[in-house]
Design a protein that fits this description.
Layout lengths: L1 E3 L5 H11 L6 H6 L6 E6 L2 E11 L2 E9 L8 H15 L4 E7 L3 H9 L3 E10 L2 E9 L1
Parallel strand pairs: 4-5
Antiparallel strand pairs: 1-2, 2-3, 3-4, 5-7, 6-7
């Protein structure tokens, strides 16, 4: 089930974040997004298996963060989260969705490509230790 994130979810979200990224976001980043209607979790049997945060950046929908617990990847959870985000941005009338992904993270780039995203540029030094690939999808 996909639902809005709550303050009680933050410790579980941080756990997924810590297991998913080499430079994870701290808990206060997630707490700052709690009023965002595009901050959702994927929950099954009381466990947070993934989350997504979609927001607005320069008039475009911006997928700010998405992760699935490593033990539950390749089960369609990420695809469900992406589709939920796309449905939300359609509701808000956006025509384009953008995201950044690590340049060396080809697995995630392939996942986004399979979800209809295309490489549209790069940003040098976007991450502390790496460049980012910008990917966009027309809605």
């Amino acid at each position: 089930m996909i639902r809005r994130a709550t303050i009680a979810d933050v410790p579980k979200i941080v756990k997924v974040e810590d297991l998913s990224f080499p430079v994870p976001w701290p808990d206060f980043f997630f707490k700052a997004h709690l009023n965002n209607p595009g901050f959702v979790v994927y929950e099954r049997e009381g466990n947070i298996l993934g989350y997504a945060i979609i927001g607005n950046s320069k008039g475009r929908a911006h997928l700010q963060n998405i992760a699935v617990h490593p033990q539950f990847r390749r089960q369609g959870i990420g695809a469900e989260l992406i589709e939920w985000c796309i449905d939300l941005v359609k509701l808000y009338g956006y025509r384009e969705m953008v995201l950044e992904v690590r340049e060396k993270n080809t697995a995630s780039q392939n996942f986004y490509s399979n979800s209809g995203f295309k490489v549209s540029g790069t940003v040098e030094g976007y991450y502390v230790d790496e460049n980012a690939v910008i990917m966009t999808r027309q809605i």
